[in-house]
Amino acid sequence: MIKAVETVFPSSVRIRCWFHRHANIRAKLPDDEAADALAHLYSVPDAPTLDAARAAADGFENTYGRAFPAAVVCFADDREVPLSVHRVLVRYHIRVRTTNLAQRSLEEEGRRTKVVTCFTSERSMMKLAFATMIRSAERWCRVSVNDIERQQLKMLRAEVVLDPPPAEDHSTGRSRTAEHRAA
């Protein structure tokens, strides 16, 4: 599924669930020393900026790399993906740093698929998948965005190249976007 999304939406920001990541890393730590390592680990998603999160991640890897190599390898695997939560507006970190919404949706679809023992066609499966996405999207419709956050979103969209630069009108040297604003 990840490969499909990366193929169709190559510039999308992929975020992995910190809750499950912590659980996987915790399973690789001895009980008597887990508290200290987890305190370091929690400082990564709780960092105020992406640079601070990377510094905290480096600190975790350097501090525990020799003592708990399996935990650090688990942490370092695909390291930039969970750090991507810091590319989202700060106010929304709590909404995107876990996959609880997706999991609840998938549990509901799982329950429905048990009732319908098999899908009669690809279309019936796609209807179920889209119903899940629509229900998740409806929760985001109530999210408000202020002017500063709009600017931050604009910068993020430019970073991941979602908005192509405006086309230049070669006869006037002005962008078409500027002409539409003037009209």
Describe this structure in words.
There is one protein chain. By secondary structure, the chain is mainly α. The chain has helices at residues 2-8, 18-26, 34-42, 50-64, 69-76, 80-83, 93-96, 100-115, 122-140, 147-159, 176-182. Among the domains are: 15-94; 99-140. The chain is built from eleven helices and no strands. Helix 8 runs antiparallel to helix 9. The chain is globular, with a radius of gyration of 21 Å. The relative contact order is 0.09. The model has no long low-confidence stretch (mean pLDDT 77).
* Strands, count: 0
Order of helices and strands: HHHHHHHHHHH
| Mean pLDDT metric | 77
User: Strand percentage, roughly?
Assistant: under 5%
Q: What is the general shape?
A: globular
Q: Tell me roughly what share of residues is in helical segments.
A: 55-70%
Classify the secondary structure makeup into a structural class.
Answer: mainly alpha
Q: Figure out the total of helices.
A: 11
Poorly predicted segments: none
Keywords summarizing the entry:
11 helices; 183 residues; mainly alpha; 0% strand
Topology, element by element:
Layout: H1 2-8, H2 18-26, H3 34-42, H4 50-64, H5 69-76, H6 80-83, H7 93-96, H8 100-115, H9 122-140, H10 147-159, H11 176-182
Helix pairs in contact: 2-5, 8-9
